[in-house]
Give the backbone structure.
Amino acid sequence: NPPPGENPPPGENPPQVDPPDYPKTKVPVEKVWADQENANGERPDFIIVKLMAQVEGGPEKEVDRILLRPGNKWKYTFTDLPMKEDGKNISYRVEEVPLEGYTATITGNAQEGFTITNRPKTPTQVDPPKYPNPPKPNKPIVNPPKYPKPSKPALPKTGDGISPSHLAMGTLALGCGLVGLGLRRRRHVR
């Protein structure tokens, strides 16, 4: 064998080393349409989903792509995916090739699966309400008429005309009446 760092002599191949047998994983993905059963008639016949992978500490790259369509019930599972490369973990995610007229939201994770939900960018109306056009005035109102402010109703004055002397006399009369009533009751009890 040649010393380290030198090429082997012609005709000799270096020994083949099999890569370690790392465990495999799978990544499910499902498409959900939030467009009222294609009410606007703009849903495409298929979508393209890209599987993105990133080795720990390295750049992200596309490793596969598939078509989701009614024939596969808008579902697919990427299988036989390595979990490690050169001893480093690999993470996976999905992304959709953008669709005109739709906004995609991706939820989930590689272990439990991803869901891509598409919503129309403009709200879908199945049956727009039909209202008659309101009549238009012939002339615009420049200065609306001014109406007089309502006057406050006159309320009766209560308690304003009582003088302190009248109040003292009323209190005295009430006190005398109560004393007289008390004496009268005492006579009937005995």
In short: The mean pLDDT is 81. Strands lie at 24-33, 47-55, 60-68, 75-82, 84-85, 88-96, 102-109, 113-120. Residues 7 and 47 are 49 Å apart (CA to CA). The longest helix spans residues 164-189.
